[in-house]
């Protein structure tokens, strides 16, 4: 019997093989864990600390889940893939969910990781002093080809009394945005807390330069950031699975937030190519982004409404209801 238990700990066994083994030893086999492939929306980074910690600490296995985290290819694609049933869960943001819903999609955020929009603009302090929206006049800003910066930045400028055309926006390959800023090919770059901000700062330090960060949230921009996204179909068909996943995930984030060094170790164990210093910075930035007035992961309905009020005009959308985008039911 010990050999059979050991075998189940080491390899995944098919349902048919499990039945035969049970017959050989005369003992029923425990129910197999529910498998989940989690879409990280992008490359592995510190913002995924809670998911990876929950995997490594066994929080998922304790509730009958076998979770694997895989890279994604951007928030828009990830949201659409969840809506289409290619993934049950992923890391997404309400901006892409509003776009998805405007086209008939049925995705829903079931827990907030970033209580605030985690983006701004990075710049090199030796070249520019960008401390307020009024400082951006005449500069060139680079962002990935499909980044929301190209739509959101002009609207944000207008909210702060500046012209939408105050900056020149360049659509770039996302892989070259960071180094292009350091090399002086652009004046400012899209910059994400818990993500590429740490990478830009590392590159700049190597070049003897200093990075400045203009945070959108400091200037009339209080909208919800990213979180755990699933579909209404998954919620309807297996609410217990959703509850187990959400509970274990935010247990992972609570542990990671209290133990950032250990959480970073888990990320590097899963993804050895990561830079430890950059990853630790991302984990710590995620801790700050998760800070809110209520229970970890809880979503503020008023903030969701503000998100829609910002995103709708920016993208010409006016038919999405706040209550269709989120639920706190699985965090109760």
TrEMBL record:
Keywords in alphabetical order:
Iron, Metal-binding, Pyridoxal phosphate, Thiamine biosynthesis, Transferase
Query: What one GO molecular function would you report for this record?
Result: transferase activity
* Pfam families attached to this UniProt entry: NMT1 (PF09084)
Q: In which pathway does it act?
A: Cofactor biosynthesis; thiamine diphosphate biosynthesis
**Biological process terms in GO annotation:** thiamine biosynthetic process
Q: Where is the SsuA/THI5-like domain?
A: 48-263
Catalyzes what?
A: N(6)-(pyridoxal phosphate)-L-lysyl-[4-amino-5-hydroxymethyl-2-methylpyrimidine phosphate synthase] + L-histidyl-[4-amino-5-hydroxymethyl-2-methylpyrimidine phosphate synthase] + 2 Fe(3+) + 4 H2O = L-lysyl-[4-amino-5-hydroxymethyl-2-methylpyrimidine phosphate synthase] + (2S)-2-amino-5-hydroxy-4-oxopentanoyl-[4-amino-5-hydroxymethyl-2-methylpyrimidine phosphate synthase] + 4-amino-2-methyl-5-(phosphooxymethyl)pyrimidine + 3-oxopropanoate + 2 Fe(2+) + 2 H(+)
Read off the InterPro entries from this record: NMT1/THI5, SsuA/THI5
Role summary: Responsible for the formation of the pyrimidine heterocycle in the thiamine biosynthesis pathway. Catalyzes the formation of hydroxymethylpyrimidine phosphate (HMP-P) from histidine and pyridoxal phosphate (PLP). The protein uses PLP and the active site histidine to form HMP-P, generating an inactive enzyme. The enzyme can only undergo a single turnover, which suggests it is a suicide enzyme.
Please give the subunit comment from the record: Homodimer.
Q: Which protein family is it in?
A: Belongs to the NMT1/THI5 family.
The name of this protein is Thiamine pyrimidine synthase
Q: What organism does this protein naturally occur in?
A: marine metagenome
Give the organism's phylogenetic lineage.
Answer: unclassified sequences, metagenomes, ecological metagenomes
